[in-house]
Amino acid sequence: MDATVQTVSRKSIAAYAIGSLGTGGFATLPGLVLVYYLTDTLGVAALAAGAVVVVAKIWDVLIDPVIGARSDQGLARYGTRRGFMVLGGALLPVFFILTFAVPAGVDQVLSVIWVTLAFLLCATAFSLFQVPYIALPAELSSRYDDRTRLLTWRVVVLALAILLFGAGGPLLRGLGDDERLGYLVMAVVAGVVIGLGMLVAATVAPRNAPGAGVQPSPGIAQGYRNGISALRRSQPFRVLLATFMLQGLATGLMLAGAQYVATWVLHSEDAVTLLFVALIAPALLLAPAWGVLARRVGKERAFTLASVLFAVAALSLTGLLWAPGPWVYLPVALAGIAYAGMQSLPMAMLPDVISHDAQTSGEGQAGIFGGVWTAGETTGMALGATVLTIVLAITGYLASTGDTGTVQPASAVAGIVINFSVVPAALMLLSLATLGRYRLRRHDIDQPAAVKEELS
Hints:
Structural class: mainly alpha
Number of strands: 0
Radius of gyration: 21 Å
CATH architecture: Up-down Bundle
């Protein structure tokens, strides 16, 4: 039987899901603390801090399609995507630690250069893992509901990772009196856990997978051409990617702003931990429920419901402008319930898009799709942090070195709240407009898969 029509096993589900310790950790911790580390520990201006993130993410966008093409080439030549995943998992911890290892006494310019270079290398290592990791579900199973199972449990682990890194990272950072040492300890522990999760997930990549239909890419330029071609010919891919990018921008804004909300709106450094617990605990518990709902009503309808729920929760956070307080954890928990669906459902829809493209175009290019998807996801999340730093600069946010009694102007505090509520809600509404144009349904996936199984 062809590898692409096998029913996914429990062992594969577990190994694949553990990879989300890596993807969740890397997506969460830098987004949560990197800008804050630059502005409030290293004393870097908000716009310069945002530029560090932008440069790294632009690099991601440039290399992801190339890595995707090379991953397809590796599959065609060696029958597996495992090599890229192992390399990324081995290198990332080293560069992650270096990102938060700027020595005391280094001036702001050198600090920016240090963090930028280290984070660039870190992002490169992450892409080496992430791009083939995203491509795997289309090869592990051809069934509509099997893919939902696979990605649902991945999101359960993802939610756990976000909880561990989002809540545990700041706790590790604050264990001692030395802020810089705290960041370094946090980076060592987090980097090792991220790397181990990636290496475990690499074991699920099929060996001796068939390379039929996978065309080796002759060069970098061809990788970009293949990515553009995939976008042009696959309408479901375009609308799903646009939806995910808009939602990545919305969640990126909230993620990057959480530390600022905790510090300057709720006036508690510990509140960032409580915010993450409130967000992720419901997601951890209810992620399987979205899988059940998707099997009953379809992934696209369940995804729409999750998006609406998140938009409502985000908009309600506008109340922080007038009455900051513990009530904030309730809408954040509601957003957490929605977030589980917003992660698992589009990721379960992506392998449907990939297999549909292979059926209609006759080309197997899961790596190309994974590379373009990762570039789009990266762009959305990066722009979230960038938009936040722009608003912070416009509204008069004052950077500090962590040892001064800085008081933020009211305009800066208002900007923090708006970026945490109104803007994400508006972006979610835009994403619903693109999601409404998604065309694939269950019968588009399962009927061709059943025919292929009969022929094999």
